[in-house]
Amino acid sequence: MIEITKAQVQFLKQHIGNIEEVVSEGDLQILLEVIDDKIVNNILGNDDEPDETGIKLQKVYDQIYNQN
Known about the structure:
Blueprint: H1 6-13, H2 19-25, H3 28-44, H4 52-67
Helix pairs in contact: 3-4
């Protein structure tokens, strides 16, 4: 089971439509890859620099990684 807070899921739901399905699969590596894909897309869409959303996504990624 993946350790993730309701607040983290709510934030991620705004950016990843199927986040609840990904979490329910219970595979941490897949979850982190899905979040990382969003981070990379954010960076590439902003002249190789993350915007505020990209920075928040990275923080949530780091939190989930550390929680697990």
